[in-house]
Amino acid sequence: YFGAIFAIMNPLVVLPLSNFSDEPEYFVEGMTDALISALSRIRGVRVISRQSAMHYKDSKKLLPEIAQELGVDFVVEGSVTRSADRVRLNAQIVQAVPETTLWSESFERAAVDVIALQNTFASAIASAIDVQLSPVEQTRLATTKAVDPDVYEAYLQGKYFGGQFGEASVRKAKGYFERAIAKDPSFAPAWAGLADALQW
User: Is there a cis peptide before residue 98, judged by omega within 30 degrees of 0?
Assistant: First the structure.
């Protein structure tokens, strides 16, 4: 359709976010997962899976080496921190060969606007690697709702335990998703997480 011309990009990888402020692991890993998901919903962007990216958590390998192993041209790395009721995300895109920082930016939003933060990040990444967003994607990324920080916290805890598998972890995940839903039944990601937990 009109305007739908998408660049076919080599895959990029979002490395696990660095934790420089002693944030809980579930928060940092959950934010990494959310950013990968936000990028994956953009048609012109191909993203290496979370499972593959998580193999490089705390890795000492050089970025060109990671890029070669994963077969990607671009590596996204960054860090996330919280201060009072604010969330701050620092991120950069590195082109593997030759190793060049193509883009670097910081994003900060109120904790209730964490979804907007993730969508802004995804839009910026797409723009930095010359991927054209469709009008539908532009509208979707610009249209976000506020989310209670406690609801999002429970959701991230559910994602964290759900990713560990094992019966005990899955039961914990189910409980956290149910806690998020009880507080905000309109928060769709928690319902999706609960469906996954029940399936497991």
Answer: yes
